[in-house]
Amino acid sequence: MKRGYHHGNLRQALVDAALDLIAAQGPTGFTLSEAAKAADVTPAAVYRHFAGRDDLLAEVARQGFDIFAALMEFAWNDGKPTALAAFEATGRAYLAFARKYPGHYIAMFEAGLNYAAHPGLQALAQRSSAVLERAAADLSRHLPAGRRPPASMVSAHIWALSHGVVELYMRGAAAGRSPFAPEDLLESGLGIYLRGLGLLPPDQ
Amino acid sequence: MKRGYHHGNLRQALVDAALDLIAAQGPTGFTLSEAAKAADVTPAAVYRHFAGRDDLLAEVARQGFDIFAALMEFAWNDGKPTALAAFEATGRAYLAFARKYPGHYIAMFEAGLNYAAHPGLQALAQRSSAVLERAAADLSRHLPAGRRPPASMVSAHIWALSHGVVELYMRGAAAGRSPFAPEDLLESGLGIYLRGLGLLPPDQ
DNA sequence: TGTACATCAGTGAACGCGCGTTCACTGATGTAC
DNA sequence: TGTACATCAGTGAACGCGCGTTCACTGATGTAC
Q1: How far is Cα A81 from Cα A121, in angstroms, rounded to an integer?
Q2: B112 exposed, middle or buried (CB, 10 Å; 0-12, 13-18, 19+)?
Q3: Which domains does chain B have, with CATH numbers?
């Protein structure tokens, strides 16, 4: 397919190429040159749209956080119909995102990029975690005030469990070798955790 | 300090140099050349002891699994004095390992190296996970047979939570920004989880 | 103990490669009149 | 509608760099007699 001299939407084409490379070859397996080649363009052309390799990578992460936050907000759905059901939907959404947008996920959480150097990123990342914290807070309201752990701690537990499942059992070392699907692992793990919080009956 | 022409123990010196580089600069920030330089040796000398860059990295991981498995076994201590106490000690040991041996941890779990290509590695990795599975199985024995999840699932939950805490809250994006120490996060998370399993009284 | 010799762990130079980035350039697009 | 010109998104060649790896070599170590 022959395009004209101007690409049309090179910026996004480069982001998409980067996504494919990241998903296929890990956080390191992405080079500006390869992304340019995949977009049928000279490496130098990238500099019309990005400050450099790092900037392109940051844009990938930025778009990822955008999608991620939207997905999480949609799944949480303001805690309807019940806080518990909405919470479990949010957990499923987390894994669905990691599975469907592996390039984004890796850029966001595994590329080790410097959040401080890209201020927009930091704000977006916090928007994502805010969803989870709000969900945890709403959930906590169903607990007697006495034994209610801080919502930010609950959300940290959930996030850690979710991330661990993705890293170890969806990708990673144990990916094929575990008898459990990541989705089942997260769901069962969350269930036990919620029971421990007192949000599910002890004998389900 | 001037050594003789022969190094003495170059093999281990290279492993140690690699560990420092990995810990300081991430899984990618390790090159054969830099490791050689850190050991005061020509890059070519590395090939007297390792088949190449990958082989050196694999040796780092191998030693890591060795230490890791030993540490976990020691902490588990055959489930004494009680399965519960031993289990919590094992969780603490996991985080202590990640904190004390960051280079090893990264090489083991984040370097994305091909386990199948290094058969010895696979066996060692399984020895590590066997400790956790045995602990989970011993714990489960205190549950009524009816609502006893498979031990391998319990150990997967624990591993995922521990790994997630390390990645997100010890290193990683939320490292400094969370109000909770990783150790506290894991301990509280494990506590809630164990309560959910029915191994701790509901109102602690 | 002394000597001849094999072994072996290092050197140093060289290689081809792909990387990110720069630069002067050119051809297409859009705008003013 | 046509023309002159500014803008802008690309090219292509070049750069310096550090990488992993190879090779013939050399100097130190260890062993046999």
Answers
A1: 32
A2: middle
A3: 1-50 (1.10.10), 54-196 (1.10.357.10)
Query: Mind spelling out the 3-state secondary structure of chain B?
Result: CCCCCCCCCHHHHHHHHHHHHHHHHCCCCCCHHHHHHHCCCCHHHHHHCCCCHHHHHHHHHHHHHHHHHHHHHHHHHHHCCCHHHHHHHHHHHHHHHHHHCHHHHHHHHCCCCCHHHCHHHHHHHHHHHHHHHHHHHHHHCCCCHHHCCCHHHHHHHHHHHHHHHHHHHHCCCCCCCCCCCHHHHHHHHHHHHHHHHCCCCCCC
Segment among A117-121, B46-50, B128-132 with least mean pLDDT: A117-121
Polymer length of chain B: 204
Give the residue from B160, B152, B144 showing the smallest Cα distance to B197: B144
Q: What is the DSSP letter of A75?
A: H
Q: Which among A152, A157, A178 is the nearest to B156, CB-wise?
A: A178
Tell me how far CA of residue B176 lies from CA of A3, A110, B20, B169, in angstroms: 48, 17, 22, 7
Q: Which positions in chain A touch B167 (Cβ < 8 Å)?
A: 109, 160, 163-164, 167
A28-76 pLDDT, tens digit each: 889 999 999 999 999 999 999 999 999 999 999 999 999 999 999 999 9
- CA of A177: how far to CAs of A117, A182, B198, in Å? 38, 12, 28
Q: Which two tokens stand for residue B140?
A: 């489960």
Nearest to A149 among B147, B167, B188 (CB): B188
Buried b (16+ CB within 10 A) or exposed e, B136-159: bbbbbeeeeeeebbebbbbbbbbb
Query: CA A183 → CA A69, A103, B109, B174, distances in Å?
Result: 20, 19, 21, 24
Q: Are B79 and B135 in contact (CB under 8 A)?
A: yes
Per-window interface: A 21-50 vs B, CB < 8 A: 26-28
B18-32 residue pLDDT tens: 999 999 998 888 999
